[in-house]
Structure formats: structure tokens, C-alpha cells
Amino acid sequence: MAGFLLAKEGFNFKAIIDNDLCSIFINELSPYAKFFGVTFKESNEHVKVSVLKLDNKDLLFVKNNYFGLSAKVTETKESLDNLIRVVDWNAANAILKNYNLSVGDIGKYRPLEIFYDHLRVSFDKGCYRGQEIVARMKYLGIDRRKFSTLISEESYEIDFRVKLISNKICYKGYKIFNCSVNRDDLELIKNNPLVKLIL
Fold it and tell me: Hey, where are the domains in the chain?
């Protein structure tokens, strides 16, 4: 329904979420909030995001062997120094397979179709709506498709075997995008001379 990050401050939690998904997030969780004495309040604070080396001490919410991503809530714009471009942020998220849901994605994908079973779903604790089907697909299902990040030359035309999930990002002479690929076709796509990397 929505992708978000949680930042803990004392006894409060701040959800870092796309503005377009905020009301959907609150509506989905409100029926459960009364059981735990939780209330929701929208705020207009700012989020400072960074692409960092792994030796950086800031909290990395997702990473690979080379870099990670950090996000912090800040009250003033003045503290937003060393800003990065949106295209840099989007490219880094795509490379790390951290797919950010948009309004058009609501209810469209199961967690394993967009790598959330690795990044955002716990199979060890808690209950949530749809848990049984998600766990069944994780442990008993046959996953014939692989959520991937494809980095290619700009001239590469999307192969019919590739199901595009995210928008294509044109970045430093390359196209970067998230997609779903049939596992049997992975090697064939990797061998295309215009494809530089598939993760």
C-alpha cells in the first residue's frame, strides 16, 4: 500500500513517506492504532537524504557492498547542506533495488515482486494483512521471475522478456531501471552487448 521509513525520536516515531501516500498510510493504520493508544499527526518537516560510503557512521537504511542510503528528518531547510540531485537519489535507489511505491502502484504488487520480501518484510515477527499469502509464496511458491535492476546503454530498447516496473532513469549515458525478468532469460539478456549490468 505504501513504502515508508521510520525515524525514532524519544517516544515518538516519524514516518518518512511520499506526500501523495500519506493519507493512504494513515487510513490503512488508523483502525489498528486505537488498540495501542497511537495517534497520527501530519507534519511538514524536511527530509535530508544522502548517498554514503559504508564506513560512514550515519544510519544506512539500505546498502550494498559499495554504498548505502541515509535519510534524516530535519525541521529547517537551513540544515539541508550538501544537497544531491533527485536523479542521483533515484538512480541510487534503483541500483539498490529499493523500489519506491507511487500512487499508481497501490495494490499492484506483492512484496516479492518488488524485492520487499528482502528489504521490508519480516518473516520472524508480527502479523499483518496478507501475511499468510506472502509467507506461503516465500517458502512454498516457485518464483519464476526475478526483480532486477538493469543498467544499459541509452540506445538499448526494452527487450520483450523484460517487464518494466520503474520509470527509466537516464543517468550519465546509461539507462537504469527496475524490472522483472524470467529467470530462464537472465543470461540471454546479460549477453546483450548493450546491457552493462543486471543485478
Answer: 1-44, 145-198
